[in-house]
Design a protein that fits this description.
3 helices, three-stranded mixed β-sheet, 3 strands, GMP Synthetase, Chain A, domain 3
Length: about 100
């Protein structure tokens, strides 16, 4: 069975088109739930009106299917809690 660590490694290759950093490092992924040949990702966008949301979601689905062979990839978008940039990134950007 595939592991959460393997999913994280793949998510670290998916870049936010606006910022240019991977979605894992940005803290956009809240949870990963694996069940046999399917995975559910609970995540957020930087803003509710993120123009890149649909593209980002499709890239996650296709990458997880292609690289790890998941048959089903479910992405749940939530804004509870609202996105807050991790402290490490805030420091990196001087915010």
């Amino acid at each position: 069975m595939l592991t959460k660590e393997q999913v994280i490694e793949v998510l670290q290759t998916v870049l936010d088109p606006e910022i240019g950093l991977d979605i894992w490092t940005m803290g956009l992924v809240y949870d990963i739930i694996i069940a046999e040949d399917s995975v559910k990702i609970i995540m957020t966008y930087t803003t509710p009106m993120c123009p890149w949301g649909p593209q980002l979601k499709e890239e996650i689905v296709s990458t997880l299917k292609e690289v790890l062979g998941f048959k089903k990839v479910d992405i749940e978008i939530t804004f509870d809690p609202p996105y807050q940039m991790p402290e490490e990134l805030r420091a990196m950007f001087g915010i």
